[in-house]
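User:
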Amino acid sequence: MSWKKSHLVVAVCIATCASLVTLSYLQRTKLFSMSMPGIGLCRGIPANTTITPLKDSQTFIITPYFDNRKNKMTRVISIVHHKEVKELYCWFCHPASGEIHISKAEIDVHSDRFDFPYGATDLECLEPEDWDPRYVSIHWSPTGDITHLPIFEIKNRDPEGSLVEFTVCISTMFGEYNNVLQFVQSMEMYKILGVGRVVIYKNSCSPLMEKVLDFYIAEGIVEIIPWPIDSYLKVSSYWHHSMDPKDIGYYGQITALNDCVYRNMYKSRYILLNDADEIILPGKYEDWKTMMQNLQGQHPEAGVFLFENHIFPKTVFTPTDMFNTSSWNAVPGVNILQHVLWEPEQKYVDNPRKMIIDPKKVIQTSVHSVLQAYGISIHVPVDVALVYHCRTPLQKNLSRFLLIKDTTLWKYNMSLIGNVSKVLQQIAWKTKEYS
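Assistant: Predicted structure:
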C-alpha cells in the first residue's frame, strides 16, 4: 500500500509541475502576444528595454531597422566590444509558418570609437529574399533554441506616423542634468525656428528637470528614450579613452545619435544633431525652413549640412537691462540672452561642426560629421548660420576685448522672452517652486 501511495504522490507532483510549466509558458506566450502583436508562431523573450544585453555580456542590442537603400537587409544598431565579438547571427522568424532564417551578421564597428573598447556598431544582416521578416533575434551561434533568445521587432518595415519638417536629436542627458533655464530657452528657440519634435536620450536629470521634460512631453513636442547605459558599461563623460579609460565614451552618445537617425528616418524631413546647450542659429534667414529651402536648392545632391560651432562663454556677461527677465532669476541654469560674445577661432585648432541632415541619405554618423552617406556634405558659411554654443570657455585666459560680439539671438527676444516666461510660470505653478 505504501508503495502505491508513494507512486501516487510522485505522479501528482509530476502532474502539478507539468501544469505549472504549461501555465508559465502560456502566460509568457500571452505576454509576448500582448507586447508584440502579429508575432504569430515566432517565439522568444520580448525585448522591452532600450538597451538589451546578450548573454555574452559584450554585445548590447539597441534596435533593428529595415534598410533597403542598397540591399534588402536589417541593420541592427548596437554596442559591441571591438576585439572580443567576432561572430553574430540574425535569426529571422516567419510569423505565419514559424520558419527560421539564419543570416550571418556583418559586424561593422564605427570608425569613430576614440580608442574606447566598446563602440557604436551596425550588425548588417541580409534578409530572406522571398518573405519579409517582422522580428529578429541576435545570437552568437547559428544553432540553439530561439525560445531562450530576446526577440526584437524590426522597425521601419512599414513607416508610419506624422512627418515633421525638423527633428532635434539630443544625446545624451546625464549627470543629474539641471541647467533648466538654458534648456527651456533652447526648447523655445527650437520651436521659434521650426522644430516639430525633440528626441532626448535620457540617462539622468534633476527632479526639477524631470518636471520640465514632463511639461514638454505633455505638450507633444518631446520624446524621451530611456538610456540606462551605465547599468551595463563603465561610462566616461569624456570623448577620448586617454582622458578617462572606461568602457565607452560620452555615455554612448554616438550610438544614441545613430539610433535617433534611423528612428526618425521616415518621420522627419531633416534631423538636427546637437546638444541641449547648442542652437543652430540662422543669420540670413528667420527660420530653419527658409534656410534649408535655400541651401537644399543650391545643393540638391547634398544630404549633410555642417555648421561652424562657436563658443559663447557663459562666464562673460553682457548687460540685458532692456529685457524684463527678472522673474527668471530663481531658475537654475544659464540665461543665454546675457551671453552674446564668442571666442575667435584658434589657428591650427580644428573647429568642430554640428549638422542638419537628410536622414534618408545617411548611413552612419558621428558627432561632428557623418561617417557614411549617399549624399555629399556641405560646409555652411558662418554668415548664413552658426552653432550658438553657450558653455564654459575653451580659451579661458582670453580678454573680453578679443571676443566677437554677435547679437543675432536678440532679434528673437520678444518671442523668446514671452514664451520662456509662460513655460516657467506653468512649471512654477505646478511645482510651487524652482527646486
